[in-house]
Amino acid sequence: MIVATSERPDLAAVTARWRREAFARGRSLSEVAAAEAATAAGPGPMPRTLVLLAGGEPVGMASLVAHDLDPRPDLTPWLAGVYVPPHARGRGHASRLVAAIEAEAAASGVATLWLYTRTAEPLYARLGWRTVERFAYRDEPYALMRRDLP
Fold this sequence. Notes:
single chain; alpha+beta; Aminopeptidase; four-stranded antiparallel sheet; three-stranded antiparallel sheet; 4 helices; 30% helix; globular; Acyl_CoA_acyltransferase; Bact_Acetyltransf; GNAT_dom; GNAT family N-acetyltransferase; transferase
């Protein structure tokens, strides 16, 4: 089952911990948790974080956000924060979460969705995303990818 943190704000503590571990190591957990709580309380389509539950336990997350890459404010919206904890990987959870975000974006009238990644380009390519640019950001190589939605 996939739920939004706006429906289950109790999951914001888990998503904050995951987001800090995977993407925001320079920020404090309380800072990330405050941002997650604000997202969970938001009524609009963005930002929106979805959590995949298996047996009632959270096993992954993904977000739909208006902006995710500071040097590219011209691009919007973004698939962001896709994360599955190590113990739950290899079961198709990330693919299900990506599809759920794509469906939410399409239902909101989004024509094109963006993401950037250092490590998961093959996964996204298998899911129909295409690489449009390679670039360096914070001294790391990334791929900028897009997905045109039906």
